[in-house]
Amino acid sequence: MDRDFDIFFVWFLWGALITPVNGAVLGSLVKKISYARWYQRQAAKSPNGRVMRKARPFWRLFSYRWRLDLWICGAAIVMIVAGALIWWNLAYLPADDFGDANDIQQATVVTIVLLSIGVPAMAFGL
């Protein structure tokens, strides 16, 4: 192996590790901002300035204890980034560099599947 491949592999590995973390951080940020705004609106309506909510055990396990919503955001951002990269390569690489017509057709299907699963999953996670 040559040095260029080693450098590419290191950057690819870091990108593969950082991308889902960024998705989880983005999901956490959006949740935190939207919850703070919701809490302020509810506190303004309340006579004593406190918000009382009834317990919901399933959602507490899902989003507080296990943080599954952030796991979904992380997996969804990986699908979105992978689909966007394939789509970008289809749009800007010459057809000869990408492959024959069968390769282009398969890459188009993979791009559609990744984006059609990743975008709704990100919306669900948020």
- Into which percent range does the helicity of residues fall? over 70%
Alpha-carbon distance between the two ends = 42 Å
Biggest sheet descriptor: none
Instruction: Find the structural class using helix and strand composition.
Output: mainly alpha
Number of helices: 5
Written as H for each helix and E for each strand, in order along the chain, the element string is HHHHH
Shape by Cα distribution = elongated
Radius of gyration: 21 Å
Poorly predicted parts: none
Write down how many β-strands occur, each being a DSSP E stretch of 2 or more residues.
0
Average pLDDT, to the nearest integer? 90
Sheet-strand content, in percent, reads under 5%
Provide an overview of this structure.
It contains five helices and no strands. It has helices spanning about 5-45, 55-65, 70-90, 95-100, 100-125. By secondary structure, the chain is mainly α. α1 (about 5-45) packs across α3 (about 70-90) and α3 runs antiparallel to α5. The model has no long low-confidence stretch (mean pLDDT about 90). The chain starts with a helix and ends with a helix.
Tags for this entry?
84% helix, 5 helices, single chain, mainly alpha, 126 residues
Quickly describe the structure.
With 126 residues, the protein is an all-alpha fold. It has helices at 3-45, 57-65, 68-92, 95-98, 101-125.
What topology emerges from the helices and strands here?
Blueprint lengths: L2 H43 L11 H9 L2 H25 L2 H4 L2 H25 L1
Helix pairs in contact: 1-3, 3-5
